[in-house]
């Protein structure tokens, strides 16, 4: 997996296998005997440190693709490698570990634990990695500071604005130093100002840390932050602006 | 994830839902409380009865005519003093056999009246039973042989008829006849609910004349050692059956009484424990119910945890530990309240409650097992949730 890195011009770009490599992914759902094909053969490759946006109307299959890329779901057929690891042969337990170590999630509705402080929310992925409490808190503090919330560590989600909550969620996604950050409509529940701020943080993290960011959105101005746009429609990739560099 | 983390997480979840946790625990608390209290009352009753029986004396064999079974109609006795003499020869040691002839009579001193149990007995009573005196003397052989009208009073009778006055040497009227008090027994308490302090002992011969009979109700034999009890019991019954062919005689020993009563009370305690156990079971169902609700309510949280890398067993452990914590914390509270309740019952009522370690250990063990048993289904459901579905849940 040492294909020449397509975006070598970007700063802080580490070498290694592509962050995500999908070949001919399909995903079929059987609902009450009716077979629905959400993805009908999607191939893409996202390099280390790339910033890509998956765009498409609702029902296009972009959420399904996002779940597959995040190893939350398994494809019906096709090959998916995350950071060079083929996922189809992995047990549920190994898959959970893979998510924990290589993927960070940012959701539209934040998904923070209520009645739990920002610091403990951010530290949660490290709990499942078996990191000790003191180290967890230290790393969570650093992550919160990197999203500008060093002064909000003891606050609970209900005491914070939507923008702040999403920044806590970003810090949580980053604390485990993942290879890929998957953001599903990260600005969907935010006003313009907070949305801009969150996107700025994602831009900065991508540029400074070299973490690959895959954004799922239906807003063109949000998608414009990404250097590469992948348009999905009816379970197929309709247009991939980075196809030349991203596909093998 | 480490076990300690799951533990802390579960404790946190219980703390966050304080009221719900407390109400869920309440079912377990009541169940455990019931087990501890009811078993202690049952055990206490058994201990008390056993103490009463062994307080009678040691190695005693009670001989009565007829079949001695629970519920059997009392048999009219045909044992006479001649039969008693015969049994004395069979036993070999005449001093180790005593008799009893009972009747309820009115006792009067001046204007004070009381209805008491008059027992006709003899000088051998104290060779068989433990019956210490507080004043005066026991009945003597001469008293019996000469049909003297003398009486030894139970402690309660003495206190009631004479108050602070020393009764020894004074007169009492029993069923209209005048008797002289020669002694007062020390307080001995109850046996089978009958206060032995309300008895008045008179010579058996005097009692026979007073009642106009020549029979006795039964006799008691004292064996010289525990190993002789059984053989002696057989010998006495065989001898009496031989003397009166076709009639039944029964002899029971203290051990047999203890065994029979012990097993009846043990069964009672078991039934009480089982009833309490059912309430503990119901408490467990409550835990299961709440855990299922909790899993449903926290579906999103479970989805998130899984997305962040929680494995199936991490989620399962979290919810299982939560259920077990609910029942064990409830169990500990129930035990504390149960012990407190048993102590209160013992202090403020006549019921002898005796706390047993096995009932406490059992109650705690059962509540932990209930937690595991009723927690497994909800915890497995949580562990198996599909993260995609769970994250979408509302």
TrEMBL record, chain A:
Keywords: ATP-binding, Nucleotide-binding, Transport. It holds the Pfam family ABC_tran. One of its GO terms (molecular function) is ATP binding. One of its GO terms (cellular component) is membrane protein complex. SUPFAM superfamilies: P-loop containing nucleoside triphosphate hydrolases (SSF52540). Residues 20-248 form the ABC transporter domain. InterPro entries: AAA+_ATPase, ABC_transporter-like_ATP-bd, ABC_transporter-like_CS, ABC_transpr_LolD-like, MacB-like_ATP-bd, P-loop_NTPase. It comes from the Bacteria. PANTHER family: ABC TRANSPORTER ABCH.1, IMPORT ATP-BINDING PROTEIN. This is ABC transporter ATP-binding protein.
Automatic annotation (TrEMBL), chain B:
It is a multi-pass membrane protein. The keyword GTP-binding does not apply. InterPro entries: ABC3_permease_C, MacB_PCD, Macrolide_Exporter_MacB. One of its GO terms (cellular component) is plasma membrane. It is found in: Cell membrane. The keyword Nuclease does not apply. The chain crosses the membrane at residues 21-42, 264-295, 316-345, 357-377. Residues 274-387 form the ABC3 transporter permease C-terminal domain. Its main location: membrane. Residues 21-237 form the MacB-like periplasmic core domain. It holds the Pfam family MacB_PCD. GO terms for molecular function: transmembrane transporter activity. Keywords: Cell membrane, Membrane, Transmembrane, Transmembrane helix. Belongs to the ABC-4 integral membrane protein family. This is ABC transporter permease. It comes from Nonomuraea montanisoli. The lineage of its organism: Bacteria, Bacillati, Actinomycetota, Actinomycetes, Streptosporangiales.
């Amino acid at each position: 997996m040492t294909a020449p890195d397509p975006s070598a011009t970007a700063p802080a770009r580490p070498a290694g296998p592509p962050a995500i490599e999908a070949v001919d992914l399909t995903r079929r759902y059987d609902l009450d005997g009716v077979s629905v094909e959400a993805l009908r053969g999607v191939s893409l490759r996202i390099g280390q440190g790339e910033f890509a946006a998956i765009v498409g109307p609702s029902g296009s299959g972009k959420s399904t693709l996002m779940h597959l890329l995040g190893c939350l779901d398994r494809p019906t057929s096709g090959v998916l490698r995350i950071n060079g690891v083929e996922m189809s042969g992995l047990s549920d337990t190994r898959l959970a570990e893979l998510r924990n170590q290589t993927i960070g999630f940012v959701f539209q509705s934040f998904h923070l634990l209520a009645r739990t402080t920002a610091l403990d929310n951010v530290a949660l992925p490290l709990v499942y990695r078996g990191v000790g409490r003191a180290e967890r808190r230290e790393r969570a503090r650093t992550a919160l500071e990197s999203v500008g919330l060093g002064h909000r560590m003891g606050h609970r989600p209900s005491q914070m604005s939507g923008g702040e909550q999403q920044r806590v969620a970003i810090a949580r996604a980053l604390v485990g130093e993942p290879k890929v950050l998957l953001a599903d409509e990260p600005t969907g529940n935010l006003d313009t100002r907070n949305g801009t701020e969150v996107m700025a943080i994602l831009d900065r993290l991508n540029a400074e840390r070299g973490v690959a960011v895959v954004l799922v959105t239906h807003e063109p101005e949000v998608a414009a932050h990404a250097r590469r746009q992948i348009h999905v429609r009816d379970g197929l990739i309709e247009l991939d602006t980075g196809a030349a560099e991203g596909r093998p | 994830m480490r076990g300690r983390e799951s533990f802390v997480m579960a404790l946190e979840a219980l703390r966050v839902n304080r009221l719900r946790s407390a109400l869920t625990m309440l079912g377990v608390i009541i169940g455990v409380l019931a087990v501890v209290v009811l078993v202690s009352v049952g055990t206490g009753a058994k201990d008390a009865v056993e103490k009463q029986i062994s307080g009678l004396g040691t190695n005693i064999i009670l001989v009565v005519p007829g079949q001695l079974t629970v519920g059997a109609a009392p048999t009219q006795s045909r044992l006479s003093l001649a039969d008693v003499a015969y049994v004395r020869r069979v036993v070999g040691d005449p001093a180790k056999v005593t008799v009893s002839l009972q009747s309820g009579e009115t006792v009067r001193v001046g204007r004070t009246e009381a209805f008491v149990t008059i027992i006709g007995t003899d000088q051998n009573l104290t060779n068989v039973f433990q019956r210490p005196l507080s004043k005066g003397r026991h009945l003597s052989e001469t008293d019996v042989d000469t049909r003297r009208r003398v009486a030894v009073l139970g402690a309660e009778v003495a206190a009631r008829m004479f108050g602070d006055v020393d009764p020894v040497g004074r007169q009492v009227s029993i069923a209209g006849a005048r008797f002289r008090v020669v002694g007062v027994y020390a307080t001995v308490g109850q046996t089978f609910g009958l206060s032995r302090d309300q008895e008045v002992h008179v010579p058996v011969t005097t009692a026979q004349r007073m009642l106009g009979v020549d029979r006795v109700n039964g006799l008691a034999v004292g064996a010289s050692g525990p190993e002789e009890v059984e053989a002696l019991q057989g010998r006495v019954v065989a001898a009496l059956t031989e003397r009166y062919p076709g009639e039944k005689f029964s002899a029971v020993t203290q051990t047999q009484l203890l065994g029979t009563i012990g097993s009846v009370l043990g069964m009672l305690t078991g039934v009480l424990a089982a009833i309490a156990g059912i309430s503990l079971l119901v408490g467990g169902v409550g835990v299961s119910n709440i855990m299922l609700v909790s899993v449903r309510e926290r579906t999103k949280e479970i989805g998130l945890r899984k997305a962040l890398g929680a494995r199936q067993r991490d989620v399962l452990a979290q919810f299982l530990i939560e259920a077990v914590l609910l029942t064990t914390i409830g169990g500990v509270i129930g035990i504390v309240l149960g012990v407190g309740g048993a102590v209160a019952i013992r202090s403020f009522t006549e019921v002898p409650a005796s706390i047993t370690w096995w009932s406490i250990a059992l109650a705690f063990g059962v509540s932990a097992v209930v937690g595991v048993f009723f927690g497994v289904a909800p915890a497995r459901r949580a562990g198996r949730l599909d993260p995609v579905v769970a994250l979408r849940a509302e």
